[in-house]
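Have a close read of this protein, sequence plus C-alpha cells, and explain what the C-alpha cells say about the fold. Thanks in advance:
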Amino acid sequence: MNLAEILPSIQQLSIIEKIKLIQILAADVEAVEDISPLEQLKTYDLPTPYNNFGAGAILMQAAD
C-alpha cells in the first residue's frame, strides 16, 4: 500500500482523527533509531546573522 492509495481515506477523517493519526505517526517515527544526527541533551552552536554586520549589509542590499 502506498500513500496515493490511502490519502483519500485520510482526507475524509475528522480533525480529531487526523490529529490522532499525526500523533501515532510521530510516535512511530520517533521509535526508529538513527533518524536524527542530533543527540538528546547536547548543545549545538548554530550560526546566525546576529552580530554579523556584513550579513546584515548584504541583506539590506538584497532588499532594495
Residues 52 and 58 are 10 Å apart (CA to CA). The chain has one domain: 3-63. The mean pLDDT is 85. Residues 3-63 form one domain.
